[in-house]
Amino acid sequence: MSLSVSAYAEKPVQYYFKTLDVRNGLSQNTVFQILQDRMGFMWFGTREGLNRYDGLSFRVYKKENSALGRNFITALYEDEQGNIWVGTDDGLYIYNPELDSFRKFDIFSDKNSCIMNYITQIESDEEHNIWIASEEQGLFCFNPTSGELRQCLDTSGGPNINRFWIRGDMCWVNLYTDNLYYTTKDFKQPLQVFKDADGVETFKGDIVNWELEASHNCVYIASTRGLIEINFTSGKTRCLLNAYARTLQFKSDDELWVGTENGLYIYHPSTGQFTHLTVPDQDDTYALSDNAIYSLCCDREKGMWIGSYFGGVNYHPHQRTYFEKIYPRGELSYMGRRVREICESNDGTLWIGTEDKGLFNLDPRNGKIVPFKHPSIYRNVHGLCLDGNKLWVGSFSGGLNCIDLITKRVKHYTMGDGKNQLPSDNVFSVCRTTTGDIWIGTNFGLVKYNRDTDDFTHISQLKNNFIYNILEDSDGNLWFATYTKGVFCYDIRKRSWRNYLSNEQDSTSLSSNKVISIFEDSRKRLWFATLGGGFCCYNPAADNFTCYDASQGFPGNTIYKIVEDRQGNLWLTSNYGLACFNPDTGAKHVYTTANGLLSNQFNFQSGYCDKDGNIYLGTLSGLIAFNPTTFVESSFVPPVVITDFWLFNRRLASDSLKSPLKRSITYSDRIELESDQNFFSLQVAALSYQAPEMNKLEYILEDFDREWNVISKNSIITYSNLPYGSYRLRVKGSNSDGIWNPQERVLNIRINPPFYLSTWAYVVYVALGVCVLFMIVSYLRMRTLRKHKRAMEKFEREKERELYTAKIDFLPM
Questions:
Q1: In the sheet where 324-326 sits, what is the strand order?
Q2: Is the model's pLDDT at 217 over the cut of 80?
Q3: Are 642 and 747 in contact (CB under 8 A)?
Q4: Mean pLDDT within 429-435
Q5: Mean per-residue pLDDT, 573-582
Q6: E strand segments, 396-514
Q7: Pairing between strand 496-500 and 148-154?
Q8: Comparing C-alpha atoms, which of 355, 365, 340 is closest to residue 610?
Q9: CB-based contacts of 689: which residues, under 8 Å, 6+ apart?
């Protein structure tokens, strides 16, 4: 947040920024150009490479890892085909997102010249021709249909083109430190110097850095002389801001952002007022990171991206959930961070008790915060209670104080051995009942203040109990939350006590004996927040409890405070964010630092809702204030994309060696893997930048997974040892408000079987089988033939033997 507001504005305006720099993965902190492509990716051109950002991670393109010939990026433009034209300090390159590759633009013009110098600007006209300005060369026009490059203006030997734009049939050109000219788009007419209605050459000797079309036939010009408006209807010009202006961007019709050498100016045309944001003298997480603003971009969610010279990128999300942040910074450096107690005073101001710097008074009407300093008020405040014109202040190890808000006098009470003195200097809770009684809870029991004798009465039923919170319900009964003994209830009519304890065998009992806060809602329901046991609702008819915890979607099992808004929703603070819960419908929504909280960790007893519905909650980093009625649910449906593909933990692109990708994984609808490539990972993203950490992603691999899986924070899907076969990966995503994109990202995956199980292998197996069978049959046949032959030969021999024997027998002896 930057509160350096110029004299042009009547009230300070708070703007909160998120910073992305080299610590987050940006290749270099000087950001000259910003572009959002049609897919939804953000692109940042730096001195050291081109960066693609998906909300969680950067992908850096450099000459060392791609065909991008230079790392110094000077201009970016996306054409009608979705290609990104990348201007560098030494020529022009075209990025094809489907192939995830670059090629150098090396076409020669009609004057036999090739674009090869520092590219100052790339734009297009209504006919989708691409216009390129190159230092020491001039202005070129490329026709994508015919592939012809025309050199429209040759500036070699003269001043370079610093800025140009096409307006209808006219081309406007600013020559560096020379003047602003115009001519017909075909450049058949000579350049004419622009003069206003009074004949003044407004831009003589000036450097025009940016121009922006506006309503009422006006154009805003950012130049070294400031922000200048040209009204083409009247022909008049006027200087709106005297500052070195570099870039312009509309956030809305009545909000023009002006990037200058001295921070960011936000101009409101309807009022003529400016808000000036600069880098504070002290480190501020939510402020601009640099005063030299070089680029601006408004994304599809109306978030603003700011590129600077030294500070990387700042992002200002569209304020759909506005949390005002009050914390030590600049002139508020004296404020405490560990906000605990919040109590409204009679004059509408708030008393804020902190655990590190004592007591403060906040005026919500003007944001003024004043510390209350008194030697008796210890810095560690643990209990606040308004009692007419008096304020009771309990502290940790500092006793109890009573402040007269009119005279500012302080009465101090400390622990003593007497029966009518405080049992401890650790005062955790002070409660004033409707009858005017003051009850004080300490870590060694409960006492009641006696106004007549200005001393205390010890309550024996709670002797030595750690009293954390005290509440009087709408029936006048008193409830006491203890740190280890559950909840005590004192029935004011029956004058009887009852103790509610946790029982692990009974799900309708109190969820934990460590109860730290009690709240009664507008429907007279009592709620109990516990340390580690979630929270409970008391059911008086059944005299039992309904319990809630993290297993039901709440951010944690420790609930510090419960506050109700005007719509009947309960706001619950925890260690892991803020939950909005509707007890009637069961609907819940969790907010974290990604949505604008100061910290995900809140503090004990720290919460209050004023009569206007404004909610104040204390965290370990300061105070947040918001009104839930101003919250607007985002209707933006983020596209779900696959950003990267890894094989055995090695990232592969379509042009990588032995890559299975035929084109970029972002545009692939099918991949085919070999049997030994069945260990792979895919990184996915839902391209919404409002609170990207809160976007939700789920996936299922059909024919393998039985149910949808939630993707972890690193947005990586991994499968290992996947059996061969055909699969269908489905990925779905939502924005930070839980609005799901009905269009899933689908990727068909085919894992081929190993060769010995492939179709060809089976063909070989069959062929071999046939051969073996043929050989076996042939062998058996041959063996049979041989056997038959031997039998025949044997038969023949036997026949011959018989014949011989017969002959012998026939002959006479």
A1: 324-326, 623-626, 615-619, 602-609
A2: yes
A3: yes
A4: 95
A5: 96
A6: 400-404, 410-413, 427-432, 438-442, 445-450, 455-458, 467-472, 478-482, 487-491, 496-500
A7: unpaired
A8: 365
A9: 42, 55, 299, 301, 303, 315, 317
Contact 620, 601 (CB under 8 A): yes
- Has residue 5 got a pLDDT over 50? no
Compute the distance between CA of residue 733 and CA of residue 730 in angstroms, rounded to an integer.
10
Q: Is 71 left (phi over 0), alpha (psi -120 to 50) or beta?
A: alpha
CB 482 within 8 A of CB 444: no
E strand residue ranges, 462-541: 467-472, 478-482, 487-491, 496-500, 515-520, 526-530, 535-539
For residue 30, the SS3 value is coil
Q: Which residues contact 497 (CB under 8 A, 6 or more apart)?
A: 461, 488, 489, 490, 491
- Rounded to two decimals, what is the model's pTM? 0.89
pLDDT at 773: 87
Q: Which two tokens stand for residue 502?
A: 């946790």
If phi > 0 it is left, if psi is from -120 to 50 it is alpha, else beta; for residue 340 that is alpha
Phi-psi region of 717 (alpha: psi -120 to 50; beta: other; left: phi over 0): beta
pLDDT(426) > 50:
yes
Extract the tokens encoding 260. 């200058």
How many residues are there in the chain? 813
DSSP secondary structure letter of residue 790? H
Contact 219, 230 (CB under 8 A): yes
The pLDDT assigned to 452 comes to 93
How buried is 608 (Cβ within 10 angstroms: 0-12 exposed, 13-18 middle, 19+ buried)?
buried
Give 222's strand partners: 210, 227
**Dist CA 440 CA 448 (whole Å):** 6
Q: How many CA atoms lie within 13 A of 468 on its CB side?
A: 24
Residue, of 181 and 794, whose pLDDT is higher: 181
Q: Which residues pair with 439 in a beta bridge?
A: 431, 448
Q: What is the distance between the alpha carbons of residues 534 and 550, in angstroms, rounded to a whole number?
A: 7
What is the rounded distance in angstroms from the CA atom of residue 581 to the CA atom of residue 786? 94
- The mean of the pLDDT values for the chain is 92
User: What is the rounded distance in angstroms from the CA atom of residue 643 to the CA atom of residue 57?
Assistant: 10
pLDDT of residue 366: 87
Q: What is the DSSP letter of 354?
A: E
Quick one: pLDDT at residue 3?
A: 30
For residue 439, give the nearest of 453, 423, 419, 459 by alpha carbon: 459
* Digit-coded pLDDT (tens) for 462-494: 999 999 999 999 999 999 999 999 999 999 999
| Least confident segment among 80-94, 317-331, 497-511 | 317-331
pLDDT at 791: 82
User: According to the model, what pLDDT value does residue 12 have?
Assistant: 60
* Residue type, position 100, single letter: D
pLDDT at 11: 35
Residue at token pair 């919500």: 364
Give residue 503's identity as a one-letter amino acid code. Answer: N
Calpha distance 226→612 (Å, rounded): 42
